[in-house]
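Mods, move this if it's the wrong board.
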Amino acid sequence: MIAYILWIAVMVLTAPLFLSLIKMIKMWLLFKKPLSPLQGYRDFSKLLSKEVLISQEASAITHIAPYMVLAPLVVVLFLLPPPSAKSFFISFTDAFTLTGLVALSSFFLMLLGLDSASSFGGIGSSREAFISALVEPAMILVIFALSLMAKNLGVAQATINLAHHFPIEHLASFAFAGIAFFILLIAENGRIPVDNPETHLELTMVHEAMILDISGWYLALVESAAAIKFMIFASLFVSFFMPFGMDAPFLVALLIFLLKVAFVAILVALIEVNTAKLRLFKVPNLLGLAIIFAFLSLISYYILGA
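Not the wrong board. Structure tokens:
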């Protein structure tokens, strides 16, 4: 249990580090002055020192929503697969539980954008709903397909089963699921080509549009939620598709886990540098691919056994 609590604490504390790592690699590849990997922590401390300012039109929802954006994601952290097969974990979590909690966080983020009564907030919330409606079904399908391959519907136990017996006989289904989940990782975290988290151009922004009218502690909570969400999706990706190192001692397994998450962050940075942002009405084409690959994963598993 002590190892389990330590793992949760490490995930929370290192979440801003990986988003800073993405920015640092992007700046380095674009021949710009690189950011410090500690920039995320500096931004958080800066926001804590600022006054909380909200729209005059805002209701009590604006005071509640930042906490409700973060809270479901913190709960998800306790339900994730462990870095070590010998560690304590919660075994009853399935695809619907994880997807529902992530969707609940997105719901309150959309409410936060709408409650400011600004046009930007409404635009961002409608776009977030548009993207989430395509992401969530694909996420359920992917996790369900992987759980079937691992012969256990519990997400944590499924990853341990995959670590002990990699499904070579279902490699095609496994590859389709991996492609689909990586697209979902990019879309749900608002990364290029779906969204650009570093822009404030009203014609393109999604996530940033919903949080333009908050500041201070509330903005720090929402930005922390964004960092934790990336950690959740990166953790699920490496646990399902890179399940090696789980049989090592806990501290070694934890270090391997963090290195795998760093690899995912580097991969996301490389994609962002080499890819242009899609127009909003072309985003469904990309997310449609995720749904197609998720269905292909299930179909090839059931019909072809591949």
